[in-house]
Write a structure and sequence with these properties.
This protein is mainly α. The chain contains 12 helices and 2 strands, in the order αααααββααααααα. 69% of the residues lie in helices and 2% in strands.
Length: 332
């Protein structure tokens, strides 16, 4: 596919830059006698769906940005981190107002949208006006990623943290599986968010304009569509979704200064697996990545779950190079 050659080096570079996996736990743990394989498989499937929809929320913005301006945004993971850490500041930090997590998350999503718009207006739009090439802009995204990540490191610190609410909960026993009210709520809200994005793309004028620009930018502009306005909206939407995904991921896992960068590899995998530039493909691909990552823990160590997800990506691309929902394109 077109631009596939740009994504392969990006993914390879991300693999090189990704920090080493945490050390394995000392000693071997005894395997307790617990639920059977079927119950554990069903539990892993539920966990995989939850993980997949969170990845999908973050990856949709990455896919939409690529679809409209063909930019491989290496700094998208930092938008995820900023969303989580800003909500943490509003919710937990002694220097913050101490809000409840729900209003803190809402304000964080709005801040993510404004940050996305500000980055586009202040950086990417001037570079596009100067005719900067995609490779050069990709290199700029790496620098922007490093800058934002270390700003978060200075302001937030290296110490992991948790939100003040919904931290420790008793799980509901739903037959052979268990899920906490927090995880169930996050999963349902994530699914509703993805359905809302799909409805926006299919049933609104701005959604139609986004799809038109993604298909053929020049034709869309000749048809009277304000491409700059569409691109700005996509950056706002991408920033808001990244911030929301960061809050959800920090809620079910933990808030750290590099959480978005660690999640970026799986976002790239979901976008490529689903089909470059397809928002629906990013949703499907991310869901597959999340399920495979969690299901692999039934047979292999947890430290290898991301590796098996990426192996699935490679296998699918060997069979269907354009991705699950991607379209073949002629080159040349």
């Amino acid at each position: 596919m077109r631009y596939q050659r740009l994504f392969v080096p990006a993914l390879a570079l991300l693999l090189v830059m990704l920090p080493a996996a945490t050390a394995a736990a000392q000693g071997e743990e005894e395997v307790p006698h617990g639920p059977g394989f079927g119950a554990r498989a069903l539990q892993a499937l539920i966990d995989g769906i939850q993980f997949g929809v969170i990845i999908a929320i973050c990856a949709v913005g990455l896919s939409l940005i690529f679809g409209t301006i063909h930019l491989i945004n290496f700094a998208h993971g930092e938008l995820v981190t900023i969303g989580a850490t800003f909500a943490f500041f509003l919710n937990v930090s002694p220097a913050g107002p101490g809000w409840h997590l729900i209003p803190a998350a809402i304000v964080s999503v709005a801040f993510g949208a404004l940050l996305g718009l500000g980055i586009d207006r202040g950086l990417w739009r001037p570079l596009r006006a100067r005719g900067t090439g995609l490779i050069n802009m990709f290199i700029v995204t790496i620098g922007l990623s490093l800058l934002l990540r270390h700003i978060v490191l200075v302001l937030y610190g290296t110490r992991p943290g948790s939100f003040a609410q919904y931290d420790i909960q008793k799980a509901y026993d739903l037959g052979p599986v268990g899920i906490t009210p927090r995880d169930l709520t996050v999963t349902l809200l994530s699914i509703l968010t993805l359905l809302g994005v799909a409805a926006l793309l299919q049933r609104t004028r701005i959604g139609t304009a986004i799809r038109a620009v993604s298909e053929n930018r020049d034709l869309a502009e000749a048809s009277g569509i304000d491409v700059q306005r569409v691109v700005s909206f996509v950056w706002m939407l991408g920033g808001a979704l990244a911030a929301l995904g960061g809050v959800f991921f920090g809620l079910v896992e933990i808030v750290t200064w590099d959480m978005g960068f660690k999640l970026l590899l799986l976002m790239f995998a979901g976008v490529i697996l689903g089909g470059l530039g397809s928002a629906y493909g990013a949703m499907v691909g991310s869901l597959v990545i999340g399920i495979v990552a969690q299901m692999s823990t039934l047979w292999f160590p947890v430290d290898l779950q991301y590796a098996w997800a990426l192996l699935t990506l490679i296998i699918v691309l060997l069979v269907r190079p354009q991705g699950i929902l991607g379209h073949r394109e002629r080159i040349g």
